[in-house]
Write a structure and sequence with these properties.
It is a single chain. The chain is of the alpha/beta class. It is built from five helices and nine strands; from the N terminus they run αβαβαβββαββββα. Strands 4-3-2-5-6-7 form a six-stranded mixed sheet, sandwiched between helices. Strands 1-9-8 form a three-stranded antiparallel sheet. Inosinic acid binds next to β5, α4 and β8.
Length: about 190
């Protein structure tokens, strides 16, 4: 872990802050979904650490399922919003109360694609829960129902979020040192610069 931590410029959200906020979200969601047929839809791979902690903070019955998507084009630090479904849900969501669990909403393009797609399957309701939100980067208007943290316009890694598939295992959310992008030969600057 020390190897990865040396690439981090600063910690934005500590493990303790994550724990506290996720416990609060779990309480709110448990209240809102008492007696409802809830299914959490986790978007792989970034949302998986958040999901695994969130479900343990939700104390009403619910199912979970997964979707994997990939963006066409774009770069490793910016999504194009043109999305392809790599792995679809295993179950029907028709008539069920669906909550999408995301790691981060940036431009909003990925989420827009997913919600439009899931809406065609006639869920009873469709809500969004995201750990992180970068409001300053929004290009498409999306309505977020549950947000862990609003964060500034910086490229973050850790707690599920990656750069080039690394850093997902860091227990906090941090800002990567700018030279890490340069060394990795990214085509674009990170979204924060
Ligand atoms: P959007 O379509 O621009 O909203 O992008 C959402 C996706 O881009 C997220 O699910 C992440 O996979 C990725 N992403 C956006 N910002 C960051 C970041 O700061 N760190 C890591 N991944 C990010
Ligand atoms: Mg993601």
């Amino acid at each position: 872990m020390a190897d990865l931590e040396k690439d981090i410029a600063k910690i934005l959200i500590t493990r303790e802050q994550l724990n506290t906020r996720i416990a609060e979200l779990g309480e709110t969601i448990s209240r809102d979904y008492a007696g409802k047929n809830l299914i959490l839809v986790c978007v792989l791979k970034g949302g998986v650490l958040f999901l695994s902690d969130l479900v343990r903070a939700i104390h009403v019955p619910h199912a979970i399922d997964f979707m994997a998507i990939s963006s066409y084009g774009g770069t490793r630090v910016e999504s194009s919003g043109v999305v392809r479904i790599l792995m679809d849900l295993n179950v029907s969501i028709e008539g069920r109360n669906v909550m999408i669990v995301e790691d981060i909403i940036d431009t909003g393009r990925t989420l827009t694609y997913i919600t439009e797609n899931l809406r065609t399957r006639n869920p009873a309701s469709l809500k969004i829960c995201t750990l992180l939100n970068k409001p300053s980067r929004r290009e498409v208007n999306v309505e977020l129902d549950y947000v862990g943290f609003d964060i500034p316009n910086e490229f973050v890694v850790g707690y599920g979020l990656d750069y080039n598939e690394l850093y997902r295992n860091l227990p906090f959310v941090g800002v990567l040192k700018p030279e890490m992008y340069v060394n990795a030969g990214a085509e674009h600057e990170p979204s924060g610069s």
